[in-house]
Design brief:
Elements lengths: L2 H11 L2 E2 L5 E2 L8 E6 L2 E6 L10 E5 L4 E5 L2 E8 L21 E3 L2 E5 L18 H7 L8 H15 L3 E5 L10 H15 L3 E4 L7 H8 L4 E3 L7 H7 L1 H6 L1 H15 L4 E7 L5 H13 L2 E7 L16 H17 L11 H4 L5 H9 L10 E2 L2
Parallel strand pairs: 1-5, 9-10, 10-11, 11-12, 12-13, 13-14
Antiparallel strand pairs: 2-3, 3-4, 3-7, 5-6, 6-7, 7-15, 8-9
Helix pairs in contact: 3-4, 4-5, 9-10, 10-12
The chain binds iron/sulfur cluster (SF4).
The site of iron/sulfur cluster has 10 residues, from loops.
């Protein structure tokens, strides 16, 4: 079995956990995610959703380490992410570090503004869970640059964070929150030396993207989520009003400042889209230097899509395998991304596919041995 195939199936069926495990419940980003290294590759998998009870995959403790098993057969070595040591610290002004930023495997991540102009009204993105975390009391509404700078330095020193991923809810302002996120990123980078990705919606004035670059930010995520306009209208009305063409304009401008591969977009599979539109859109994005970060829908408990199931593995495989070779051919692979989700790849099978395509054929199999 190839690693990418196992990742796709795990992200569809989930992983039953029979071992101590650090969970990351609720919220935006890789919610309801177990964070785990599989054969040294970072992967996020559903562990708490209802459908996981039917998964054949289990995480089992072994004499030294852990393994992923299916029906009694050991499929791969696994290492769950440890609880980060910086979670035990508190800022000078009394806020626990874990309420300000979380470790996503080796990436430090934070939602700097935990509110969104669209949350709770007709414009709310159906896949999003930004308000769920806020309601849980596990995070603070506004994270300040000085607080985040403290956390970044500690996450690098104590837990080996290699980059920083910052997102924000959209604001009513014309910059959509990009400038505040960039300020936070600048403070964190100055304190830690880590590269930073900042994620935001296309600003009304593209000069905002220049201001983000001027703060030393390394990579940006400007997420269209889908290239099927009918689906976009249903899942994210404000993004549909912005229009897919405006995303291409923003991306083109951003590539001019950040460079090829340092601009990315989420592309979520499993929302009822026409796969041909997805593949065409991804190829067009790649052609202008934008990395399409393909992920299967991860239904967020508490979101408007909480009851939707992740897309079938063969569908994810079919779409992703039309895009991964194109990325490799154009030299726009994840290992060239400096910071953020597209660098990390834990929520996507595409990074593993890229490595398959770049490595000799016999290096792509993961070890399988019988249990006991
Ligand atoms: S713009 Fe959409 S995805 Fe982003 S935080 Fe707001 S509701 Fe969530």
């Amino acid at each position: 079995m190839k690693l990418a195939d196992l990742i796709i199936d795990l992200q569809y069926r989930g992983l039953r956990v029979n071992a101590p495990f650090e969970r990351r419940p609720g919220g935006a980003g890789p919610s309801d995610a177990g964070m785990i290294w599989i054969e040294g590759t970072a992967v996020t998998v559903p562990v708490d959703a209802g459908f996981v009870a039917g998964s054949p995959y289990t995480l089992e403790p072994e004499d030294a380490g852990f393994g992923i098993y299916a029906d009694g057969v050991r499929l791969a070595a696994a290492a769950p992410a440890d609880r980060p040591r910086f979670y035990d610290l508190t800022t000078a002004d009394g806020v626990p570090y874990w309420q300000l930023a979380l470790m996503h495997l080796d990436s430090l991540a934070s939602t700097v503004l935990q509110t969104c102009a669209y949350w709770g009204n007709d414009d709310q993105c159906r896949f999003c869970g930004i308000g769920v975390s806020l309601a849980s009391g596990n995070t603070v509404t506004v994270k300040r640059p000085a607080q985040l700078a403290e956390v970044a330095a500690a996450a690098k020193e104590l837990d080996g964070a290699v980059d920083i991923t910052l997102t924000t809810g959209s604001t009513y302002g014309p910059d959509k929150g990009a400038l505040y996120a960039a300020r936070c990123g600048q403070a964190m980078k100055e304190a830690s030396g880590l590269p930073v990705e900042v994620q935001f919606e296309p600003p009304d004035d593209l000069a905002v993207i220049d201001k983000v670059a001027d703060r030393g930010i390394d990579s940006v995520g400007i997420h269209v989520e889908t290239f099927d306009p009918a689906v976009l209208e249903w899942v994210a009305p404000p993004k549909h009003r912005t229009g897919i063409e405006r995303y291409f304009e923003a991306w083109e401008h951003a590539v001019g400042r950040f460079g090829e591969g340092q601009v990315s977009t989420y592309v979520i599979l499993g929302m009822g889209e026409d796969p041909d539109l997805i593949v065409e859109g991804c190829w067009r994005a790649v052609d202008i230097g934008v990395y399409p970060f393909i992920v299967p829908l991860r239904p967020v408990p508490g979101s408007l899509m909480a009851d939707v199931l992740p897309p079938a593995p063969d569908y994810v495989d079919r779409v992703a395998r039309q895009v991964a070779p194109y990325l490799v051919e154009r030299g726009l692979t994840a290992d060239r991304v400096t910071a953020g989700c597209a660098r990390c790849q834990a929520c996507s099978p595409v990074g593993a596919m890229e490595r398959e395509l770049q490595a000799p054929a016999d290096r792509n199999l993961i070890p399988v041995r019988a249990l006991g």
